[in-house]
């Protein structure tokens, strides 16, 4: 199952190359695409709406600069007030002279963070949040992604309730997409590509569909994960066989396609904003975003700006944290109003068995997609030559039609080796490795990954010239394996680079080998010389984790219609699971050691608990405004993020009422104390009394005042102060928990993280 980690990483690196590509393709032109933020209240009365004012602004600067082009892209109403347009330096200068001008952002480009998981999350038909939330009935999840494959069984509307009357969205006509493909499950489908086209990238049918139809399969996968209908007998070539369904199987889905695979995968900030703007205007309840722009301050991060606008309208925004782990400070989409999701493993492994001629039997990881069986085949190990033993280069005559053993000690990836073995005409491969993975689609010949601890036994036997593989068998899935969840190798880690004093990610959700719908009409992979197609496939990435959380947010929303996005996030975070299925703490797939909240946030998502958290840490727009003031933003920067010309902040630093704690200490300074003030709101029964329980390791000294709180009524609020002192010799990252516990089975848990660099 670990094999998939690299798919997302590879994809990631591909995408990293994008800015260079764009720069090259736009070089001859003088004009560039900009997002222009305007003061909404400055619109002269004679314009009937903001769009005509924006268009007029662009037209008039074009006249002034003697440009005859029509470079207008989008007018934005909700995510920010302003527009995007392709402008020459002269036009830009003129636009910026306008007294209504607030800020300018250069076009930038985003990257994708690429039937069992509901069971793993404890979702049941008989009890818990599924029946209570009617499976997410009447909730609308907007997915900002690569499009959707509407014919997939996951988007069948059998048994779906009618489209909510408040819905204003629609399904647009386009290439290979007619509006009648939508139904009561898929209720919106739009695409946004003006920004990409303005950058000189062609949306041609060769590379993508000029419509909401999914070319890559990614958006189909994320949509079906969040809200796919029940599909019986889905599998990845026989692996993970079972029924596939989304986390909120009765919720409605609306697709906003902003990510295109023209030449390479690309999404322009202008298009992302347009998609988010439309989603807000259409009336989605939840937004799920599995892509990210650069890590920049919030006043330059249009996803952060647009998300704050969505939050103000009560929309929960869930974003993938990025796939740049295990490096620290690699979090994307970490603004404190966003729910930032890391990826964890699930308790399922994909196996092959190996029996050698000497009777030794092994079980290892494999995703080889066919039920082949290899028997009585010669084994090869090029022991005396590191190039051969490491499968860096093999002699065709030596390995032809044999099973090759590869010692991967000195290697950093396995893709090349799989290719070398396959090209040399071998029948199969045995990789001895502890930390290297292969993607499911890379098993072009029968291959098995075995831990290096078996290495000596196998190599010893294999280098004898008469050694054989007695049998090798594929396509076996084992559930309940573990430990799981673990923080996925690739999942981005905190602290957040922009706001290190807010703990990110917020939550961990399944993001490794997630089975969901894909594009069915193009080969998923090639094996044994055949192109293989599939309706459902295993994908990995924080891209896959975010829609799980979007689905849970939809369920919580269905139960508590009046809760704010912060309340829903608090409920999800404070009820998260801290342990794994082997009754230990969550580990890190990267090094096998105990993970920290910098990897898993508040813990692993626990949908049934989120329904009834007892207490919440709530936040409103004014809290976020005060947070931005406390960051020291000046008027221009504030105006850009909060889209207002007036706001109120006081000078005293105020703690954001966040459901987690992180304190950064500095090893060179002497012992000091940090204090956090928080406010709890009772959303459980009146008359509840909560006691503070601290689980704190040595090296940290934590106190809570008061440590008993009685809530006389529902929605009553109480403040408390948490103080942290640090022992000078404490480890670099240390963490514990504050748990508010009542006598009705509520445990309201928050991680407390202390860094001491
Ligand atoms: C729908 O889009 C297709 C492809 O772009 C086009 O051929 C067709 O005429 C459009 N139909 C309508 C009703 O606009
Ligand atoms: C885009 O594709 C069309 C049709 O394939 C072609 O005529 C045009 O030159 C392309 N434009 C660019 C910028 O590549
Ligand atoms: C790995 O590298 C070490 C040191 O360079 C070398 O001695 C050894 O033979 C190499 N092993 C393989 C399998 O390449
Ligand atoms: C296997 O064969 C190779 C070359 O044919 C020879 O060099 C090597 O000594 C043989 N190994 C054994 C264990 O017989
Ligand atoms: C705020 O800071 C930015 C960046 O330093 C600067 O460009 C801008 O002029 C400042 N605005 C105000 C009102 O000081
Ligand atoms: C700010 O802090 C000062 C000193 O601690 C206190 O007297 C004042 O009331 C605070 N103001 C607000 C608005 O909290
Ligand atoms: C720690 O404090 C010292 C002295 O004030 C300062 O020079 C250093 O940059 C600080 N380090 C960090 C990581 O903040
Ligand atoms: C608390 O949970 C336990 C085990 O889940 C259950 O047996 C008990 O009835 C619950 N108590 C209350 C007050 O809900």
From TrEMBL:
Residues 136-580 form the Peptidase S8/S53 domain. GO terms for molecular function: serine-type endopeptidase activity. The keyword DNA-binding does not apply. Keywords: Glycoprotein, Hydrolase, Protease, Secreted, Serine protease, Signal. InterPro entries: Peptidase_S8/S53_dom, Peptidase_S8/S53_dom_sf, Peptidase_S8_Ser-AS, Peptidase_S8_subtilisin-rel, Peptidases_S8_3, S8pro/Inhibitor_I9, S8pro/Inhibitor_I9_sf, SBT. GO terms for cellular component: extracellular region. GO terms for biological process: proteolysis. Residues 1-24 form the signal peptide. Pfam families: fn3_6 (PF17766), Inhibitor_I9 (PF05922), Peptidase_S8 (PF00082). Residues 33-107 form the Inhibitor I9 domain. The active site is at 145 (charge relay system), 218 (charge relay system), 543 (charge relay system). Residues 655-754 form the Subtilisin-like protease fibronectin type-III domain. The keyword Nucleotide-binding does not apply. Its main location: secreted. It is found in: Secreted. Belongs to the peptidase S8 family. This is Subtilisin-like protease. It comes from Lactuca saligna.
């Amino acid at each position: 199952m670990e094999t998939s980690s690299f798919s997302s990483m590879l994809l990631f690196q591909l995408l990293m190359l994008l800015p260079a590509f764009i720069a090259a393709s736009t070089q001859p032109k003088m004009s560039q695409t900009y997002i222009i933020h305007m003061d909404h209240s400055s619109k002269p009365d004679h314009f009937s709406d903001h769009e005509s004012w924006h268009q007029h602004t662009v037209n008039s600067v074009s006249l002034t600069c003697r440009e005859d082009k029509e470079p207008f892209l989008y007018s934005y109403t909700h995510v920010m007030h302003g527009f995007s347009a392709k402008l020459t330096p002269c036009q830009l200068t003129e636009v910026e002279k306008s007294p209504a001008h607030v800020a300018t952002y250069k076009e930038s480009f985003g990257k994708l963070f690429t039937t069992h998981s509901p069971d793993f999350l404890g979702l049941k038909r008989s009890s818990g949040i599924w029946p209570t939330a009617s499976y997410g009935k009447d909730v609308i999840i907007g997915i900002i992604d690569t499009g959707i494959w509407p014919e997939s069984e996951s988007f069948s509307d059998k048994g779906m309730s009618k489209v909510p009357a408040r819905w204003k969205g629609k399904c647009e006509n386009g290439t290979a997409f007619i509006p009648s493909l939508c139904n009561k499950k898929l209720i919106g489908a739009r695409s946004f590509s003006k920004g990409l086209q303005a950058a000189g990238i062609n949306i041609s049918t060769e590379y993508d569909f000029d419509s909401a139809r999914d070319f890559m399969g990614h958006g189909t996968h994320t949509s079906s994960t969040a809200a796919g209908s029940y599909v019986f007998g889905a599998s990845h070539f026989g692996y993970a066989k079972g029924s596939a369904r989304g986390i909120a199987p009765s919720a409605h889905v609306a697709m906003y396609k902003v990510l295109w695979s023209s030449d390479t995968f690309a999404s322009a900030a202008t298009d992302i904003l347009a998609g988010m703007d439309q989603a807000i205007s259409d009336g989605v309840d939840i937004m799920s975003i599995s892509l990210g722009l650069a890590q920049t301050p919030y006043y330059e991060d249009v996803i952060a700006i647009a998300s704050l606008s969505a939050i103000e309208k009560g929309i929960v925004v869930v974003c993938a944290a990025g796939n740049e782990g295990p490096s620290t400070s690699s979090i994307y989409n970490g603004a404190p109003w966003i729910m930032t999701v890391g990826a964890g493993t699930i308790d399922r492994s994909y196996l092959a068995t190996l029996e050698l001629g000497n009777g030794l039997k092994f079980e290892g990881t494999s995703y080889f997609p066919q039920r082949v069986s290899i028997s009585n085949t010669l084994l090869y190990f090029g022991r005396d030559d590191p190039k051969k033993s490491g499968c860096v280069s093999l002699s065709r005559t030596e390995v032809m039609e044999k099973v090759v053993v590869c010692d991967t000690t000195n290697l950093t990836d396995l893709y090349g080796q799989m290719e070398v073995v396959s090209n040399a005409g071998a029948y199969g491969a045995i990789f001895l490795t502890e930390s290297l993975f292969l993607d499911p689609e890379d098993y072009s010949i029968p291959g098995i990954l075995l831990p290096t601890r078996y290495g000596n036994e196998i190599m010893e036997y294999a280098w004898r010239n008469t050694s054989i593989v007695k049998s090798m068998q594929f396509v076996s899935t084992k559930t309940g394996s573990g430990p799981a969840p673990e923080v996925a190798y690739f999942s981005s880690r905190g602290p957040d680079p922009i706001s290190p004093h807010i703990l990110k990610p917020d939550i961990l959700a399944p993001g490794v080998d997630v089975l969901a719908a894909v594009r069915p009409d193009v080969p998923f992979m090639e094996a044994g010389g055949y192109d293989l197609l599939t309706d459902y496939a295993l994908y990995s990435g924080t891209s896959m984790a975010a829609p799980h959380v979007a689905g849970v947010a939809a369920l919580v929303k269905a139960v508590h219609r009046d809760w704010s996005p912060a309340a829903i996030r608090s409920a999800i975070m404070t009820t998260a699971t801290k342990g794994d299925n082997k009754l230990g703490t969550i580990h890190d797939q990267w090094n096998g050691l105990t993970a920290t909240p910098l990897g898993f946030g508040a813990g692993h998502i626990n949908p049934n608990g989120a329904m009834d958290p007892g207490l919440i840490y709530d936040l409103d727009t004014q809290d976020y405004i005060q947070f931005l003031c406390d960051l020291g933003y000046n008027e221009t920067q504030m105006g850009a993020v909060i889209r207002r010309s007036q706001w109120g902040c006081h000078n005293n630093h105020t703690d954001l009422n966040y459901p987690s704690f992180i304190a950064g200490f500095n090893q060179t300074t002497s012992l000091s104390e940090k204090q956090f003030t928080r406010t709890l709101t009772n959303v459980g029964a009146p008359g509840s009394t909560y006691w503070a329980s601290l689980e704190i390791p040595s090296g940290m000294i934590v106190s809570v005042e008061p440590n008993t709180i009685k809530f006389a009524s529902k929605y009553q609020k109480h403040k408390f102060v948490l103080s942290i002192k640090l022992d000078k010799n404490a480890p670099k990252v240390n963490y514990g928990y504050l748990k508010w516990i009542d006598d009705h089975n509520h445990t309201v848990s928050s991680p407390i993280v202390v860094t001491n660099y």
